[in-house]
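Lab meeting minutes (informal)
Scribe: AK
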Amino acid sequence: MADQFDNADRDLEVDGPVRSRRALLAAAASAAAGAAVAVAASAAAPASVLAADPNDVVKNTLNDITAVTGVTQLSTDTNAFQAAGNGSGAGLVGTTWTASKAGAVGLAGDASASSYATGNFDLDAGVYGYSGNNAGASSGVFGEGPVGVWAVGDYGAYAQGATVGLYAEAYPGGTAIHAHAGSAAIPAPVTNTALYATVSSSTNVGLRANGRIVFPNRSGRVLVSAGASSKAVTVAGMTSSHLAFAVVNANRSGVYVRAVVPATGKITIYLSKAPTASTYVSWLVLG
């Protein structure tokens, strides 16, 4: 048997040094063992010591990128991205160094007409929201909570609308807008009021209008016929406890408003005497 192996060894001569079959088998076994050890070592080694793909996003550090990096959720009704902060940490922070864009952008529906897409004007905002949906309640930004939206600044809130600049509703019967001037505590809101203005002291102004004031349903002008000394005017919601005022709109000798009597659903204007010609009288009710 030994002679057979010796003969086989002599048959394996090559251009270089002679290697026996026994040596080749031993080398192969050693290489296999080394590969097994390498596989086991790589399986046991932490990810941090493995070779990293330069295109990977690495956790626990800021990743420098040169193009948009994003995710697209292909499963229906599933969130695409989620971030949760701990303690005083924010869940998500978005920043920008240019006034032409916004730190965080939220787009809903068809956003092709948004200023974000068209560049109609610089966004210059921490958060920009746009909705291209056609639903009546569709909104660029929606806030819900004890305070739906809290704004602080030189202008706490600025609204510009093609139809309505600012719309407020209190359902079912609160105060839609409560405006307060002064440093004292803000009074409690009242019920069934569209606009409620309060002040802290007599030096504060509750309401100031540099322009026309119109009371469509609480004022008007009525024609008193010649020979008549009184005129009843229907006023919705009027009661006897409300205030009523009137003045003659023509120069009629000895003719003036003697009294305006409020009653349920109406006021009655009494003149000092019947005019000799039809005369207009303007009226205003408060309360």
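Next up, CB showed the second protein from the same session:
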Amino acid sequence: MTHQLIFCRPKNSSVAFRCARLTLVACCCVFAELGSCHAAERLVTVEDAESEYTGKIVALNRARCTLMDRQGRLVELDVPKLKGMKQIADRFRADSISVFRTSLGAEFGKRYEVTGTTHYLVCAPQGRARKYADLFETIYRDVDKFYRVRGFKVTRPDVPLVAVVFASRKEFFQYCVRDNVPPSPGLQGYYSLVSNRVAMFDESGSLNAASGHNSGRHSTVLASSAVNGQTAGTIVHETIHQVGYNIGIHTRLGETPLWMVEGLATVLEPDGMRHRNSSRAVAGRLNSERYDWFRQKYLALHSSGSLAKLIASDKAFSRQTLNAYSVSWALTYFLLENPVRRRQLTSYLQALAERDSTVGYPAKERLADFITAFGDIARLEVEFIRFMQRL
């Protein structure tokens, strides 16, 4: 079983449009209009030769305009092909819940139902959505509280969060193809930065709290949700991603380093980590899978300078996947357990959020930002390894 965070860039929705290029003067006027709206996060309609898009401008340069629509989807447009824009309201407003429900109902048909909670709309097979929705909402509240009590800057989501639980792997894979996500045999679910949705499948039905599949990491969640271990694990991991990207911990644009994104997700998987008072023992806060791999596999191969490579590039996640996940978990756990390092981590995340999302993030800049937040990497690496060896 694998979980996945989909980092594919927004599909360029204007590629298929055959419209004449604007004159240089007209293009500059449109760019100026877009820029003024971006600053205030107003609700606008942007138009090209074939269609119009309503939402707020979330990234802009002279070549590309990225708009978040009223259901949270990102759309990337070519600025030279835009005809103009108009303001709809002073502030961005998401679609109403009734519009969301109607849209999801039309997309997935009568075999599926849509159930809402405070923060979620969950689409699942008839009779099953409520169980999943309760679990998504529980994880949302846990994750939101975790960040708040530790001093992280947290905001409210701009739009209701959507999760789709398919009845079969086949339906899930068909959706993956439509969503431009390569399906793979072990893929259980993913969170998409483009659609802002969690998508997954559960062929078992999952409505059996005493299924015998309970994992110690999710025992409290399972007891209250009646969702089995594998499905619960997928929901926990993907919800952590989705919530983090919607409450201001991460930004959906730009290039947030994967070690940071997956480090926080794997740290927050255990109940004992999310629930401040649920476990005083260290064992209750550890991600046992990641911890065991780190101690048994990673440390045996570790060499000085390995940490700098992880910070500088995401390549390890495709070349040495389990090593990358395990050391990312371990490093993030180490930073969160030390009050001084935790404050540095909040500053680091803020710096990542404030980066210009329209430019790349080369290794030199990644390392420089990390050093600005945490100091010398070699010294931190020694401190980190010693901490983990004593754990």
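CB comment: Residues 27 and 80 are 6 Å apart (CA to CA).
No objections, moving on.
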